[in-house]
Amino acid sequence: MACNCNCDCSKYVYFFGGGKSEGDASMKQILGGKGANLADMADLGLPVPPGFTVTTEACAEYGKLGRKKLFGKIDSQVEKALKTLEKVTGKTFGSGPNPLLVSVRSGAAVSMPGMMDTVLNLGLNPETVEAMIKLTGNERFVMDSYRRFIQMFGNVVLGIEHHSFEHALDFVKKSKGVELDTDLTTDCLKEVIEKYMAVVRAETGEEFPTDPKQQLWRGIQAVFDSWDNPRANRYREINEIRGLLGTAVNVQTMVFGNSGDNSATGVAFTRDPSTGANKYFYGEFLINAQGEDVVAGIRTPQQITLAGSKEWAASAGVSEEDRAANYPSLEEAMPRCFKELDDIRVRLEEHYKDMQDLEFTIEHGTLYMLQTRNGKRTAAAAVKIAMDLADEGLINEETAVMRVEPQQLDQLLHPVFVKEAEEAAEKMTVGLPASPGAAYGQVVFTAEEAEEWVEQGKRVILCRIETSPEDIGGMHVANGILTSRGGMTSHAAVVARGMGTCCVAGCGDVVIDYAGKKFSVNGTVIKEGDWISLNGSTGAVYVGQIESVEPALTGPFGHIMELADKYRKLGVRANSDTPHDTDVAVKFGAEGIGLCRTEHMFFEGDRIVSFRRLILVAETVKKLKDSLNVKTLEEVKKACKDEAGLKAVAQYEQALSELLPTQRADFVGIFKALEGRPCTVRLLDPPLHEFLPHDPKGQAEMAEQMGVSPKAVAELVHSLHEFNPMLGHRGCRLGMSYPEVTEMQARAICEAACEVEGSKPEIMVPLVGNVVELSIQKEIITTTIAKIEEEKGVKLNVLIGTMIEVPRAAVTADQIAEEAQFFSFGTNDLTQMGCGFSRDDAGKFLGDYVRAGVYEFDPFQVLDRTGVGELVKIAVEKGRNTRPDIKLGICGEHGGEPRSVEFCHNIGLNYVSCSPFRVPIARLAAAQAAIKGKRG
Asked: Which of 182, 632, 878, 904 has the fewest CB atoms within 10 Å of its CB?
């Protein structure tokens, strides 16, 4: 991958701090987000511990060359950066009276919270431990730092399971009768260290490494290795993160939040990442702690501001006396540091013009900034923050539109709990509202079970004491997440917010028993498979399922949709087959229906009986017409002398007469809901076998309904069997064989249009591959329209077009446009036929194709621009050459996928059409495409 920033591509190590930063914020692809922003903050004069960044290019080279060759290339640059760091800090790495200790942290160009590895306190060994004790006069602090280093290095670098160290720590805590790590004395910590060293010897057969240089290089290697660990790969797969070189490695001078009661560490957001609110400074911290303590959930984190602290106490049922004594805010506990941090908050938000996620440490009353990045946020927060920043003048309207990921809007378009139903539900407990929304499901206790149950079609709530990066797969599929530990910045909270998954965290009342597959809350026992409901906006946890309703799309959401409509050029319609779905689509801003699939109407109630009655005799009637060499049913009835044949014709006509009013009524309902907006109606498309029962019981029931033998039904099913039905007798081919069905559907559409004033029907003939097919079907439709106009004394304005879904249609679009007034691209089938993939079977291997880089994305999910997209472009160009005013749209599933919407904008389509719930996504994606085009 070529580098497009201001870097020297032979340079692999960039220093920052001490008044000189070699990188800057423009170099995220090379320095990673963390490294680029550290350099940027240092340049801004903020209190950043100095350090250096090993680039993502080095990570890419590591993958190609291996450890030995890569480290040989960068060794001198790392050594030079270390010397500079020693000079700037006045400390010596690995020796001396003032030892330099560092953190080794990952940082890709795209934030992947918790997915890759970190090592803190690196550089400690028996020699530097003694020096640190003499330097600080605080033996307990040094021993606490040493045991943390052994545990992190042992886990991340040596590959020892985390629980092996936790068991040793818990043993000492229980033997000493203490609950918290902070309660361990110096002697207790020495005992923990001895046990940790024994764990290392038992697990690796070697002593813990004491050479700081070896520790550093092994730490760098471990971070590079973590780029390809299963959880990081899964995270990138889930979030469709592609094209990155790898992770950078940030080696930074350690500052210690665990060095006493005048020290602390924390994570903060400049605005609420759950709601987008800007009432106060949002975040959590702990006194005498290191970073992992804040997110681990072992200690209750404290709030940054007094206002936030009081709000937390009220929701957690903590008295003001208890709060002030045991959980004071940073504003109260360290007012000078709070003021400095609050000023930095304002400065960083104004600099980056976006909500920031900050990490900080306070060492002996001195504040240090460890990180800033654009914060992960929920969809609701993203929308509100974008609109608020625009209102505050920090960004313009176009930037506000570009700030919200279109796919995120999906989080806002799903149900919320009915207020009365929620009030009546049995509330078990209240935790932290970590990620908003309403969720219900069956309880499971492992990520693996969550994935298995969802694969079976179940809806689950993943319940964990605390989540870890290894749980990413289960978190992705779960409808909601419940944890008994953790704060608003815990792993569960951060990842759930990024995914848009409802999450309630830190429910201390919830006692989870993994072995028994159950949890208990104040005497209430919930077992695996039981149903619970979560309100991620309030933190409430309920027994059972709670009724939900559609959300109200007002406020900031409505405002950003107004902006999207202001800037987009592409129309947005919806795929809808019912009046209800049409109402939903219109509410979400659809400008019409781009695909109404009439076959879905045949499956409701008694209609399937009528349609099966038609299928039963359709081929008999066709053969009668062929044998008599006539075209119409009236001609058959006049010419036919066979009683059985006439009976078949009568049954055929009866079925059509039964279907006509039901189809008409459906269209009346849809046209009314549209209130004058256009509606593209696709004529019958699927093969007839899809409407028939294939099991003996169903065939027997149909036989009884039809008044024939089960054998006759079985023979019919067999006769309609096709080896490749999706390429068989379907679409316009059915209309060619059974033109009466085309006529019936055209009549139903047009009669409904006569009933609903202002209707704008567009009749679409599917699966055309040859212009002659369309001209024959069009003649049937136009003849029917003329009859209705004469019968009703009206003049109808009905467009007639086709669905371009056969490659031959795309390359002969100039001919087809002579007959068609519009094209609607059916990209599902066009992908299937253009790529030669079966939609029903390709899922078995397309994932492998994407991972191997054959396709960047699954072509059924994201339009294949270079292949299928070229067919669309050919058809657009040829169609417009023949008919300059031809209307062009897309109605496949790609119509609601942002990257595909951008392609549709770029090639000049008139509209996209998608499912009702994706209409806002398409509207925003269309606006972003227009803004990108304007910006070049």
From this structure: 632
How many helices and strands, by DSSP H and E, does the chain display?
Answer: 37, 33
Residue 2 pLDDT exceeds 50? no
Q: What is the identity of the amino acid at 528? A: E
Distances (CA, A) of 389 to 96, 181, 392, 562: 50, 42, 5, 16
Digit-coded pLDDT (tens) for 412-467: 876 688 888 998 999 999 988 888 789 999 999 999 999 999 999 999 999 999 88
pLDDT tens digits, one per residue of 677-723: 999 999 999 888 888 888 888 888 888 888 888 898 898 888 888 88
Mean pLDDT confidence for 141-167:
93
Q: Please write the tens of the pLDDT for every residue from 206-237.
A: 999 999 999 999 999 999 999 998 888 888 88
CA gap 408, 924 in Å, rounded: 11
DSSP 715: H
pLDDT in tens, 519-564: 999 889 999 999 999 998 889 999 999 988 777 677 899 999 999 9
Sheet bearing 356-363, strands edge to edge: 302-303, 282-287, 264-269, 356-363, 366-374
pTM of the model: 0.81
Structure tokens at 209: 């490494």
Contact of 656 with 614, CB cutoff 8 Å: yes
> Token digits for 760?
């704008």
The strand pair at 548-549 and 416-417 is best described as: antiparallel
pLDDT given for residue 701 in this prediction: 85
Q: Is 66 left (phi over 0), alpha (psi -120 to 50) or beta?
A: left
Structure tokens at 190: 């020495």
Alpha carbon distance 124, 215 (integer Å):
9
Residue burial 63-94, b: 16+ Cβ < 10 Å; e: rest: eeeeeeebbeebeebbeebbebbbebbebbbb
Cα(528)–Cα(460) distance, rounded to whole angstroms?
Answer: 10
What does the alpha-carbon distance between residue 113 and residue 483 come to, in Å, rounded to a whole number?
A: 18
DSSP letters spanning 206-245: SPPP--HHHHHHHHHHHHHHHTTSHHHHHHHHHTT--S--
In angstroms and rounded to an integer, the radius of gyration of the C-alpha atoms of the chain is 33
Length reported for the chain: 936
| Residue 722 near residue 687 (C-beta atoms within 8 A) | yes
Strands, E assignment, 366-485: 366-374, 416-417, 427-430, 432-435, 438-444, 460-464, 480-483
Question: Distance between CA 927 and CA 220 in Å, rounded?
Answer: 42
3-state secondary structure of 439: strand
Residue 471 per-residue DSSP state: G
**Would you state the torsion angle of the CA atoms of residues 658, 664, 670, 673, taken in this order, to the nearest 10 degrees?**
-120
**CA 71 – CA 507 distance, rounded (Å):** 46
Average pLDDT, stretch 261-287?
Answer: 93
Active site residues: 491, 891
The encoded tokens of residue 44 equal 């801004």
Compute φ and ψ for 547, nearest 5 degrees. -60, 140
Burial label, 882 (beta-carbon count in 10 A; 0-12, 13-18, 19+): middle
**CA-to-CA separations, 798 to 85, 747, 762, 821, in angstroms, rounded:** 76, 12, 6, 10
Q: By 3-state DSSP, what share of the chain in percent is helix, strand and coil, each rounded to 5?
A: 50, 15, 30
What is the rounded average pLDDT of the residues 485-504? 79
- Residue 14 and residue 107: Cα distance in Å, rounded? 14
User: Considering the chain, what is the average pLDDT of its residues?
Assistant: 91
Q: What is the Cα–Cα distance from 741 to 614, expressed in whole angstroms?
A: 9
pLDDT at 44: 93
Smallest CA-to-CA distance from 297 within 306, 309, 286 is with 286
Instruction: Determine contact, residues 582/593, Cβ cutoff 8 Å.
Output: yes
Distance CA 286, CA 294 (A): 6
- Read off the DSSP letter of residue 2: -
